[in-house]
Structure prediction request, 226 residues.
Amino acid sequence: DGGITQSPKYLFRKEGQNVTLSCEQNLNHDAMYWYRQDPGQGLRLIYYSQIVNDFQKGDIAEGYSVSREKKESFPLTVTSAQKNPTAFYLCASRRTGGRTDTQYFGPGTRLTVL
Amino acid sequence: ELKVEQNPLFLSMQEGKNYTIYCNYSTTSDRLYWYRQDPGKSLESLFVLLSNGAVKQEGRLMASLDTKARLSTLHITAAVHDLSATYFCAVVIMEYGNKLVFGAGTILRVKS
Prediction:
């Protein structure tokens, strides 16, 4: 079964803690993305990576960090510097090289700060 | 900075009726996507529109793209309850790793 998995589905964080959200894909896609969704809003790009060992900041990267050590994995760390981290986090991946390449999304992680 | 605006943001309609969701974007892009999101769920790809005049249809949904007007439409024909969801349009910025810039979404509720 090819697809994108995210874990955990729900995550609770205390103030001042760092937490890491997992994203794994077995689609052999080169590019991976992290988006944040707040209630009643569209998605906003946090970070993206087009190849292994390389990644770029998106529109709202402050307070977040990522790594891309393997093609299939793109974990996101929400640090204590992120002032308002409660949101729905979505990971996506895309095959590169074609104009019709669509971003496919994982099931998401809902993060709540206690 | 690319801005994407959808309207309406909320649409309540009766089963069997037709309606159109509009998506305007502010700068040139050669690719536009429509996604569907059910409550608490992830995004499902509906359509990718690549060129001016492109039209795609799937069931009761039809999407079109006018790149000169920077406008895409999602037309719903004879709505049924199962179409209730939030619909997003998203425009590609190729210079930034093909990132997607999303509209705020249209919440569609189809009433029986």
In short: Chain A touches chain B at residues 31, 33, 40-45, 48-50, 56, 58, 90, 94, 96, 99-108 (CB under 8 Å). The longest strand of chain A covers residues 43-51. Chain A has a mean pLDDT of 92. Chain A has no helices and eleven strands.
